[in-house]
């Protein structure tokens, strides 16, 4: 069995242990981050949509930082939205606050009917900086 190199952000270990999953796993120079939602410290949903999206990004950034990475190292993003036709515009006006400058990562958006009480979730794969490609891309 492969040993998992788990990354835990500070202060949220109990939440992950209770729900029985790892926030992120390092493997072969990549960081695979579990879907992050806008949860409060106790794991409950942030009730305001805009605050929930910001908190999801902040939770994601805390995991990336724990691995020595930033959102600039993200190469692939999957977002899940409940009722995307009604929340997309609200969500997408917040994304540039965290997304950074082009070139942007790849993106897959998925509309879902249920996210355990949340309206938005973001899952990413990042290339770890110490494993970064040394080539110069023009």
Write the layout of secondary structure elements.
Layout (H helix, E strand, L loop, with lengths): L4 E3 L5 H7 L4 E4 L2 E8 L11 H18 L7 E9 L1 H11 L1 H4 L6 E7 L7 E8 L11
Parallel strand pairs: 4-5
Antiparallel strand pairs: 1-2, 2-3, 3-6, 4-6
Can you give a write-up of this model?
The chain has four helices and six strands; from the N terminus they run E-H-E-E-H-E-H-H-E-E. With 138 residues, the chain is α+β, with helices and mostly antiparallel strands. It has helices at residues 13-19, 49-66, 84-94, 96-99; strands spanning 5-7, 24-27, 30-37, 74-82, 106-112, 120-127. This is RidA family protein. One of its GO terms (molecular function) is deaminase activity. One of its GO terms (cellular component) is cytosol.
Distance between the termini: 40 Å
- What's the total helix number? 4
Number of domains: 1
Q: Biggest β-sheet, characterized? A: 6 strands, mixed
CATH topology name, in short, is 60s Ribosomal Protein L30, Chain: A
Order of helices and strands: EHEEHEHHEE
User: What is the rounded Rg?
Assistant: 15 Å
Secondary-structure arrangement, i.e. CATH architecture: 2-Layer Sandwich
Task: Report strand order across the widest sheet.
Answer: 1-2-3-6-4-5
Protein name: RidA family protein
GO molecular function, one term: deaminase activity
